[in-house]
Design goal:
The structure is a single chain. The radius of gyration is 20 Å and the shape is globular. It is of the alpha/beta class. The strands form two sheets. An eight-stranded parallel barrel has the order 1-2-3-4-5-6-7-10. A two-stranded antiparallel sheet has the order 8-9. Strand 5, helix 8 and strand 6 form a beta-alpha-beta unit.
Length: 322
């Protein structure tokens, strides 16, 4: 099985390369009191720096053979704020084009993971509408980066609101209201408190969308007596209609008293067991490392896995399990 590894948004190695610099609403308002143009220019300066740093991060990825990367959702500050009107796609077109061309030229797999407040099954209409607006923003950004529908937006199912069955039905109903562009990109991930891998899989199968399997979340939240063989086979099956390798998220608990929090690094032995099990169902796999030490954690995990039986390192971010 060929396995590629990636990391999330930030590098702990590159200096002054944050892609998530922001402008608060309070700061924007204060500048706007004097000049709306100056306030917009402030947003543009920060957004341009975030895009510049995003390109630096992708160049760093290439230097380390990393082909799987998750963008920061905060690249464009205040992009979805209802009281900020600016055509950021037009104003930032040169920077977006350069970033998109780099992705295409180097055949990178990129995603966004919109924030936890993106809840499609909320009974509150305002929450759902805000979620749609945020997904539309992410989808438009990927389009501006010249990415087709295979560049995905990963979200969680949402809350149970006292009745999981009703909440899942509401998710299905609200799904039909998503803009077509966003709906083609959205895929689902199991979470660590509410919706298990099995429940998320069932929803993905009904919607005919891929599922991202978060291994750490599955350890924290699963049905007693689950059949892992069935889970893995079905998870891989959700990707069959796409040209993409199945994708998993890996992380390790921070400590026994905070099992849901992420550790700085990832336990290679635990991940190895999962990879060996998945090997029965797929010949390719992409792994997103979600650890506090970001790229350093990813590079260490690959190195640690390379010392285990039947593992052959191809480069710093790719290996084969025989």
């Amino acid at each position: 099985m060929l396995i590629r590894f990636g990391f999330v948004a930030m590098s702990t190695v590159l200096e002054n390369a944050s892609p998530s610099q922001t402008v608060t609403w309070k700061t924007y308002q204060k500048i706007r009191e004097t000049s709306t143009d100056a306030a917009i220019e402030k947003l543009l300066r920060v957004a341009r720096q975030n895009l510049k740093n995003s390109l630096r991060l992708l160049q760093y990825c290439q230097a380390n053979f990393v082909q799987v990367y998750r963008f920061s959702s905060k690249i464009i500050p205040l992009a979805t704020h209802p009281e900020v009107e600016w055509n950021y796609l037009q104003d930032l077109q040169p920077e977006l084009q350069a970033l998109g061309e780099y992705i295409i030229t180097n055949k990178l797999r990129v995603t966004f993971h919109p924030d936890h407040f993106i809840v499609l099954n909320s009974p509150r209409e305002v929450v759902f509408k805000n979620a749609v607006a945020d997904l539309a923003y992410h989808s438009l950004l990927l389009t501006a980066l010249q990415q087709d529908d295979n560049a995905k937006l990963v979200i969680h199912v949402g809350g149970s609101y006292g009745n999981k069955e009703t909440a899942l039905e509401r998710f299905m109903e609200n799904w039909s209201l998503l803009p077509t562009g966003a709906a083609k990109r959205v895929i689902l991930e199991n979470d660590d408190r509410t919706y298990t891998a099995n429940e998320t899989l069932t929803l993905c199968e009904k919607l005919q969308v891929p599922m991202v399997l978060d291994v750490h979340h599955d350890w924290c939240n699963h049905e007693p007596g689950r059949d892992l063989t069935e889970i893995y086979a079905r998870f891989v099956g959700t990707w069959q209609a796409t040209p993409l390798p199945p994708k998993i998220h890996v992380s390790s608990p921070k400590c026994t008293t905070a099992p849901r929090s992420h550790h700085n690094y990832v336990d290679a032995a635990a991940v190895y067991l999962v990879l060996k099990q998945l090997q029965r169902y797929t010949s390719t796999l992409d792994v997103m490392v979600e650890a506090k030490q970001k790229d350093q954690a990813m590079l260490r995990l690959v190195e640690d896995l390379g010392r285990l039986a039947g593992v052959k390192l191809l480069n710093r971010a790719t290996l084969v399990i025989e």
